[in-house]
Design brief:
There is one protein chain. By secondary structure, the chain is α/β, with parallel strands linked by helices. About 30% of the residues lie in helices and about 30% in strands. The radius of gyration is 24 Å and the shape is globular. The protein binds adenosine-5'-triphosphate (ATP) and magnesium ion. Adenosine-5'-triphosphate binds next to strand 2 and helix 1.
Length: about 290
């Protein structure tokens, strides 16, 4: 099956700064793809080119088989963009915002009414539909922002850091909505700098920094690239420096350091008995209580 999104060789300079430096990736139907990277990595700039809002210096984007440029209109109907900055009208109610944006998407009549009801349910705002959005909490505004991107049932939903600045409960509600969308076959491009969000939501993740994709793959593939280690924290007192030195001699331990109140240890497969043979475990860690 051909991918919903194909982005190839995206490049964007801002004067001397190369904000996006040859970014390429694909997203298939029903796949949630994460762009994980720190502030300034080039996530929003890449997304802006993918959505046809920003002209790149090089590269090619197709969505659902249609080429996307700043002047194209055809393929853009397949994209739903949830921008990093909120894009809702504070003096309209939640429902009025959805109806307004729905009309911009060319929807009308009972189609728009029933889709508005569905979207309010998906984002958990049905009971607040008649309230002005300036009276919404930050998390509610974020959820409405997502709802607007969903209205026209896009083939590709792009979410740019949708959980920044929301409380854990709203964050969970947003993540649950996103999980249910990919279940319906929508392709989702999700940017975040939270590792745990990428891990929970995304089928594949690209790690982006300084405008370049540094690594890409499923969680398992990424872990196998860097190797997985367990971090063990022991709390206690005593001769922590020499305890750290002793622990470092144990098989599988790659790092051991003393802190004010215990030891920090990095080990390969820490739960394996091979790493901490019973007899040595007793002797080596005796000054420290777990
Ligand atoms: N319009 C612009 N003019 C000049 N520089 C820009 C512009 N937009 C972005 N940049 C620069 O491009 C780089 C990438 O920015 P971008 O917004 O794509 O990062 P990001 O990964 O989305 O970061 P964040 O997580 O903070 O949103 C940054 O160094 C930023 O300062
Ligand atoms: Mg950004």
């Amino acid at each position: 099956m051909s991918p919903i999104l194909q982005a190839t060789g995206l490049v964007k300079h801002f004067d001397e700064l190369k904000a996006v430096d040859g970014v390429s990736f694909e997203i298939g139907q029903g796949e949630t793809y994460g762009l994980l990277g720190p502030n300034g990595a080039g996530k929003t700039t890449s997304i802006s080119m993918i959505a046809g809002l920003l002209e790149g210096d090089a590269g090619d984007v197709t969505v659902n088989g249609e080429q996307i440029t700043t002047s194209s209109t055809k393929g853009k109907g397949s994209i739903g963009l949830v921008p990093q900055e909120l894009a809702i009208y504070p003096d309209l109610t939640g429902e009025e915002n959805l109806l307004f944006f729905g009309r911009l998407y060319g929807m009308s009549g009972s189609d728009l009414d029933s889709r508005t009801d569905e979207v309010l349910d998906v984002v958990g705002l049905a009971d607040r539909r008649d309230d002005l959005t300036k009276e919404y909490s930050g998390g509610m505004k974020r959820r409405l922002n997502i709802g607007i991107g969903l209205l026209h049932k896009p083939k590709l939903l792009i979410l740019d850091e949708p959980t920044v600045g929301v409380d854990p409960q709203s964050r969970n509600a947003i993540l649950e909505s996103v999980e249910s969308l990919s279940g319906e076959g929508m392709a989702v491009l999700y940017t975040t700098h939270y590792m745990e969000e990428a891990e929970r939501l995304c089928d594949r993740v690209a790690i982006i920094d300084e405008g370049k994709i540094k690594a890409e793959g499923t969680r398992r593939e990424l872990v196998s690239m860097v190797g997985q280690k367990d971090r063990v924290k022991l709390t206690g007192g005593g001769a922590l420096g020499s305890a750290a030195d002793s622990v470092l001699q144990l098989e599988g331990v790659t790092e051991a350091s003393a802190s004010d109140h215990g030891l920090h240890i990095l080990a390969v497969d820490a739960s394996s008995p091979r790493s901490f043979p019973e007899s040595r475990k007793q002797a080596q860690t005796s000054p420290v209580s777990r």
